[in-house]
Amino acid sequence: MNQRSQSRSAARLAAVQALYQKHMERTPLARLLNEFHQHRLGREIEEGEQYADAEVDFFDDIVRGVDARGEEIDTVIQGKLAEGWTIARLDKTMVQVLRAGTYELLARPDVPVATAISEYVDVAKAFFDDREAKFVNGVLDAIAKQVR
User: Fold this and answer.
1) What is the rounded distance in angstroms from the CA atom of residue 65 to the CA atom of residue 61?
2) Which end of the chain has fewer CB atoms surrounding its CB within 10 Å, N or C?
3) Model confidence, pTM
4) What domains are defined for the chain?
């Protein structure tokens, strides 16, 4: 994996974490971005262990984009959930993974569909088991077919 791929992967993971924090704590967007810039992206977690250097502009675009287009994104996701399921029923972290992935599929034509999907499957694996990762794959694949 090249440096840019690694920094984008780190940006995606950080974006999901930031979106989760915003959802749970209602952190204002500017403060949230600043906090991640100052304390999270590419900083040491514990001695010797570093957060991977994230591509900051890419991170900002995902977080800002999901924030700005939240209603549209949720409508697209809701349309791909099984009957009887709502976004509110999904795990809160899962929702942020799907929102970030959907945003990239909608707004980042520079990112190939296969890349966006596999990257968010990998993000899901950081938090969940294979079953949930497969769910992310299925939902984002269905969304990609609709929006690309």
Assistant:
1) 6
2) N
3) 0.91
4) 3-147 (1.10.940.10)
